[in-house]
Write a structure and sequence with these properties.
5 helices; mainly alpha; 106 residues
């Protein structure tokens, strides 16, 4: 086992790190899109599923396309939502509104 992705951030990182032959193997069998479908990431999964290994002139271009698609999806999911910042890393996009209101200590 080279790595396991628990969430999209993990998957994005693994896509950039795994050997070319491993990405080719999993891409050829639609394993990435199946992983995404299983987690309810339907629009992202549909984008990745359309890929074919022959769609790119190199595995690195395929790798970058998948990582960029994940990056854009993660950013899109964070738009228009507010979260408390105490004890959290600097926001790169916001998640969900906590407790149904904007906290007074923002």
């Amino acid at each position: 086992v080279i790595g396991r992705a628990r969430d999209l951030r993990d998957l994005q990182q693994l896509v950039m790190e795994i050997p070319e032959e491993v990405l080719f193997y999993h891409g050829e069998r639609n394993r990435l899109s199946k992983w995404m479908y299983a987690r309810g990431l339907f629009s992202l999964a549909a984008t990745v599923r359309k890929l074919h290994n022959g769609s790119f002139d190199s595995i690195d271009r395929m790798r970058e396309f998948i990582a960029q698609a994940i990056r854009e999806y993660r950013i899109l999911q964070g738009y228009g939502v507010v979260m408390r910042r105490a004890g959290l890393p600097p926001p790169q996009g916001y998640q969900r509104l906590l407790c149904g209101h904007v906290p007074a200590d923002l």
